């Protein structure tokens, strides 16, 4: 299988093939509208604007599996992202990223690259780990998505080349993107 074999749904219900993004560098992210990492919408928008002309895109997939932090439907989430954070990159319909109803694209992504060990060096990292350990310990096992704003970097040939946890440095992410462009 290839990332280009998957289909995704827009908030309006239209189905889109991932082949639409062939030959682009993609940063695919599960997001949430009411998460402590929501500020990253703006960071992702800046990356998108800075690299769009070079064949880069951000793809956002709202998810409500972590603390009910995205209770809105896909249409409401996309509108909120645009209004509140100035998001112009694609925001898709709400999905699940873990469990029996995992969206096939995210099932593929999380099995293409191993989940890194969660570091506990900073206060934010410790809080993230403690929340996951307390509320979703099963997500610490294997390659599960552990929280909102987990990101997968995909190269122009559709290969998943990196996985970034929610607390990853945007500078490190930008450097990884730049290396592929």
From TrEMBL:
It comes from Psychrobacillus psychrotolerans. Pfam families: GSHPx. Belongs to the glutathione peroxidase family. InterPro entries: Glutathione_peroxidase, Thioredoxin-like_sf. The keyword Nucleus does not apply. Keywords: Oxidoreductase, Peroxidase. One of its GO terms (biological process) is cellular response to oxidative stress. This is Glutathione peroxidase.
């Amino acid at each position: 299988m290839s990332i280009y074999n998957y289909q995704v749904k827009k908030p309006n219900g239209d189905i889109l093939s991932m082949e639409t993004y062939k030959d682009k560098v993609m940063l695919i992210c599960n997001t949430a509208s009411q998460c402590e990492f929501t500020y990253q919408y703006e960071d992702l928008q800046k990356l998108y604007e800075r690299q769009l002309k070079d064949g880069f895109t951000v793809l956002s997939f709202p998810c409500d599996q972590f603390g009910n932090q995205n209770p809105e439907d896909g249409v409401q989430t996309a509108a909120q992202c645009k209004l509140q954070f100035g998001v112009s990159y694609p925001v898709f319909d709400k999905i699940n990223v873990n469990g029996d109803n995992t969206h096939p694209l995210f099932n593929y992504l999380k099995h293409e690259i191993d989940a890194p060990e969660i570091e506990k060096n900073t206060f934010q990292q410790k809080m993230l780990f403690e929340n996951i350990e307390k509320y979703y310990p099963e997500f610490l096992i294997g390659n599960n998505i552990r929280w909102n704003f987990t990101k997968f970097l995909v190269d122009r040939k559709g290969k998943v080349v990196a996985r970034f946890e929610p607390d990853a440095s945007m500078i490190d992410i930008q450097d990884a993107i730049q290396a592929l462009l």
